[in-house]
Structure formats: structure tokens, C-alpha cells
Amino acid sequence: MRKIILPVLLLFALQLSSPPAGAVPLWSVQAPDGKSTVLVLGSVHLLRPADQPLPPAVHDAYRRAGRIMVELDPAELEPAATQAALERIGIATPGRSVAESLQPAEWRRAEALASAAGLDLQAVSMMEPWFASIVLYTDALGASGYEAELGVDQQVTTWAQRDGKPVIGLETLEEQLLLFKTLGEERQREILLKTLEDAAALETDTDALVADWRAGDAAALAARLATDFEGYEDLRDSIVIRRNQAWLSRVEGLLALPGTSLVVVGALHVVGPDGLPQLLEARGYRVQKLEDR
User: Fold this and answer.
1) Which three-class secondary structure state does DSSP give residue 169?
2) Which of 15, 135, 208, 212 matches a 20 to 30 Å C-alpha distance to 85?
3) Burial of 184 (C-beta count, 10 Å sphere; 0-12/13-18/19+)
4) Does residue 1 form part of some domain?
5) What's the total number of domains in the chain?
6) List of E strands, the chain
7) 172-201, pLDDT tens digit by residue?
8) pTM surpassing 0.85?
């Protein structure tokens, strides 16, 4: 796996710098009777202040929609509830922490990698390795100026709350967290070490990926992600394929309602043969990739 896209379960943060207007992965899905439309938007979960404002295509899709569907219901992200869930699921039980699970040679390597990337390994030593990976990855992005509050899905949610549009969640925070917690210990250690290996070069390693996102090139993005998952097919199955299949019925529920809905999910979930647009097309819905405007 060339780049660390393992922790993007929660983040899927394509590292962007000033995406041009309208260059977003966006599809229109219509019910057979033409009375219902769902817009499916591939999201970037973290952005920099320099990346604002969001492309006009995002604003246009939001304006068209009477209801919004995102990965997590905003109620799931209430600070106290979020902290409790993270502590319950992410803080290790005896024998499963970073400090306990890494062999001495692995710990020394992890410390060296963290130090080179300006990250604090000791601060995550009592977490489970999968959760430590997410925290360290987020820290590395934060040091480069990326903020979740500026991400596409968070901004769309904020607009909807301001305007009184209903916001529906596709899954719970606990469901998201348990996807990683159920990984075997060896796999978790591998993810942690790979996260640390890639952290120092996070921005430069994503240049080509960013170019594909900017161009709205779903085929190129899908091919790149497929390459990045080589050797990690189990993770692709759990964090992409099975989640998309679980979400499919929820999105179809929107297509039974009149008017237009907007579904905002990580860009990982909208490309390739297992992407939501492709799955919906296979169900007989009319699917069109919207050109940049």
C-alpha cells in the first residue's frame, strides 16, 4: 500500500489545495417515475482555510436538496457522547494498547518514525493501535492546516441545520469505530506502522490523488484507490464494500420520497464498481455523472 488510506474510515481526507470551481465527484440518481432525485456527492472530510469557499457545484447541489443524508447523524457527534464512545472503544483493554502490542523493535521503529514526522507516540500509547493510527493521522493533517469543520460534509450539515433542512445519518459512530476495533492485532500494528511511515510525506504523497479529485476523474480516482488497497483487500471489503451495501437501502429510501435529496459521503464510497452510484445504477435507477459547472 503506497499511501496511508487506512484511517480514512472516519476521515477520508483527500488533501486538497484550492480545488477549482465545480470539480467534484457528483452524480444525479433518478427514480424510474422521475418524481425523485438523489444527488450523490463525494466528500472531502477535512480542508484548509485556503480551500474556501467550496466549489459552486457543492452549493448548487445543497440548494436543490430538501433533505440531507451524511455518514453520521449530527446528534452522534455531540461532544460528550463522542468522547464517551471514543474512550469506550478506542482506549485499550489490558494487553491491547500500543505500548503493549508492539514488540521492542517495533516500538523503537515507531518512535523514530513518529519523531521524524513531529508526532507524539507516547500520547497515544494507551490507545488501541487502530485508534492511535487515526489520532496520529489527524494530528499530521492538523499540523498542515486541515480542519474537519471546513470539510464538505461538515459545512453542508451546518448549512442544513441553519436552514431547517432535515439531516439523516447512514450509520452510528459506534458502527464506524467497531470496523477497526474488530481487526486482528497484527493487522492493527501493521496499520499503525504504515501510518507513521507515511505521515512525514503525507502532502507530497497525495499530489496525484488530489489532481484526480480536482479533475472530477472518478475512473482515475477509483484506479488509484484500488492500487492503494493492494494487499489490504480485507479492509476494502469492510470499510468500503460492505458499508456501501449497507447504505444502499437507506439511499433507496430517499428515492421513494418526492423531490431532491443530497447524499454526502467520503469520495472513497462513490467511485469504482462498488461505489454507490454504480450500485444504484445496477438496481435500475437512472444515474448520470454531472459535468463540472
Assistant:
1) strand
2) 15
3) exposed
4) no
5) 1
6) 26-30, 36-43, 67-72, 167-171, 259-266, 286-289
7) 999 988 988 888 888 888 889 888 887 766
8) yes
